[in-house]
From TrEMBL:
Biological role stated in the UniProt entry: Involved in the export of PMA1, possibly through the monitoring or assisting of PMA1 folding and acquisition of competence to enter vesicles.
Organism: Wickerhamomyces anomalus (strain ATCC 58044 / CBS 1984 / NCYC 433 / NRRL Y-366-8) (Yeast)
InterPro entries: EMC7, Sop4
Superkingdom of the organism of origin: Eukaryota
Protein family: Belongs to the SOP4 family.
The protein, known as: Protein SOP4
Signal peptide: 1-19
UniProt-annotated location(s): Endoplasmic reticulum membrane
Keywords recorded for this protein, A-Z: Glycoprotein, Membrane, Protein transport, Signal, Transmembrane, Transmembrane helix, Transport
PANTHER family attached to this UniProt entry: ER MEMBRANE PROTEIN COMPLEX SUBUNIT 7
Record-level GO BP terms: protein transport
Amino acid sequence: MKLLWLSLVLGSIIRLVLGATVEGFLELPGELTNLDLVHTSIDLQEITTDLDRNPIKRSAFINHEGVFKFNQVPKGSYILSLAHIEYNLVPFKSRVDVDDAGEVSVHLVQGAQKWEETGLEIPHPIRVIPNTKFPERQYIKKRVPGILESGPIATVVNNPLYLAGIFFVIIAVAAPYLLEKFDPEAAKIMKETKAQRQSRSSAAALKAADNTLNFDIGEKIGNSRAAKVGSDESRK
């Protein structure tokens, strides 16, 4: 009994002393902050069929350079899980195998993958980055988009050309009122100039209409005289 107990203790000590180092590094946009250190969780869970002992489970933290390490990892198979509150990390779950020589091999774990199947091999140390397609996590999803997100109003608001046109129209309409408020004398001069132009254009239009009317009357008189002369000659 004592020999069995001693062998178990020695086996546990050997497992703790002789082990590998599982490490990696996290890369996020910009420099890592203290919040990134707190918001990142890294867990290493042993997968074993040995029911005589509890599986190994450890947690690690990243430093200011984004590096994390699990030291003295015994021989076995493990699941490495990484998560961040603000980012979707890749790989967020991977399989880690440590052999008798302390060599570490890492493989990507897919959603519907069986444990007996090994996925794509990942270089060790493990490089962890945000997902390129969906880098940030979305905790709130809008079911019905607002009027500024879809529809004709959203088309106008989200198009810079439409916004520029609306801006110039507003400026053109509001400019006279603003000028009258901040510079009344200049506004008065502009109104007088505009009135003079309108009167000149009206006078020119009336003159052109009068000339056209006189021309039409003269043409009609000439035509009537020519017709009368022609009728007199035919009578003779």
